[in-house]
Amino acid sequence: MSLVVSEDALNKLQALMDQVEEESLLRTFQNVHQGCVTETLMRFLKAREWNVTKAHKMIIDCLNWRVQNEIDNILSKPIIPTDFYRGIRDSQLIGLSGYSREGLPVFAIGVGLSSFDKASVHYYVQSHIQINEYRDRVILPSASKKHGQPITTCVKVLDMTGLKLSALNQIKLLTIISSIDDLNYPEKTNTYYIVNVPYIFSACWKVVKPLLQERTRRKVQVLPGCGRDELLKIMDYASLPHFCRREGSGSSRHSENGNGNGNENCYSLDHPFHQKLYNHIKEESRIQEPVEPIKQGSFHVDFPEPPAEKAEIVKTLESELHKFKISNGTCD
User: Fold this and answer.
1) Segment 136-164, tens digit of pLDDT
2) Where do the domains of the chain lie, and which CATH numbers do they carry?
3) 3-state DSSP call for residue 209?
4) Which of 79, 123, 256, 274 is the most buried (most CB within 10 A)?
5) Alpha helices in 185-307 (DSSP H)
6) Percent helix, strand and coil across the chain, each rounded to 5?
7) Helix, strand, or coil here: 259?
8) With 90 as the cut, is the pLDDT of residue 196 above it?
9) SS3 196
10) Which has more confidence, 291 or 144?
11) Residue 71, class by beta-carbon neighbours within 10 Å (0-12 exposed, 13-18 middle, 19+ buried)?
12) Distance between the two ends of the chain, CA-based, in angstroms?
């Protein structure tokens, strides 16, 4: 992509956005760009292969989705009671383990050990969007300020420890979550590092990889073992997710959570990241509705239809995993 072409596309998209007059869309757009308008427009352009018309439609669709689903208020909707939220944190494994040397937040995700079995789909979607919004409205602006330059993306380390054939049961929920990200939080991840890879992942990756867009493929790096040595090239030891700390350390949420070592395990509700996030949401809810008691119940968000590319990937994955089931003669 030549500089001239991208500059031209950017100017055209900016001109189209300058024509938006609807107050609600302009207000939510501020929550999206957080002062980094150029970087935000570039993300949407990249996601639509530099097609200005498609990028503009994507932004407007995203802003409408935000307004219709009151996404701007989601950080004032705590999931309560705390024990119930702890169950969500123990079954939807994600956390902030630190920062890369360039200042990018490092998110750790326990793909293989996330069971998603403690709450309804709506709670998991709500929790996922809250982490996205907290990242975009609190973590990234604070990292930008610290480094004196716009930091608008993050790094994700995906731990495949414990990945089983029963992952098939979670494909629907994972598709909803990743479709929300594709359509409304495009190009927020700089690189996906995949670690602790079992055979089942390698086999599925071979089939899925050719279906991914070149842009996405380039972002995925499958690392040997727990990925420690490779990751230490871009971050300090203190920022490594706990499952990358030593070869063969695995990622047992039970041993980590159960020994009072919550500060090490960035998935745990006791980890400083989750404590700050949860306190932030509770504080926001007090500001918004100081008199009303906090209501229990999930914050419902409309689920998008998965994009065609994603639907094809899911179909391929399902058929691949079914083949495994048949050849192994087992359900797990």
Assistant:
1) 999 999 999 999 999 999 999 999 999 88
2) 3-68 (1.10.8.20), 74-285 (3.40.525.10)
3) helix
4) 79
5) 199-208, 214-217, 228-231, 253-258, 272-288
6) 55, 10, 35
7) coil
8) yes
9) coil
10) 144
11) buried
12) 45
Q: Which two tokens stand for residue 174?
A: 């994972």
User: What pLDDT is attached to residue 250?
Assistant: 44
Closest-CA residue to 298 (of 69, 34, 21, 50): 69
Bridge partners for 220 per DSSP? 192
Query: What's the full length of the chain, in residues?
Result: 332
For residue 254, the one-letter residue type is H
Question: Is the model's pTM score more than 0.85?
Answer: yes
Residues 6+ apart with CB under 8 A from 27: 72
DSSP string, 103-172: S-EEEEEETTT----SS-HHHHHHHHHHHHHHIIIIIHHHHHHHHTS----EEEEEE-TT--GGGGGGHH
Residue 46 one-letter amino acid: K
Closest CA to 136 of 36, 41, 236, 206: 36
Phi/psi at 154 (5° precision) = -135, 175
Q: Tell how far CA 246 is from the center of its chain.
A: 25
Q: How far apart are CA 77 and CA 288, in angstroms?
A: 10
With beta carbons less than 8 A apart as the criterion, state whether 98 and 235 touch: yes
The Cα 27–Cα 37 span in angstroms is 13
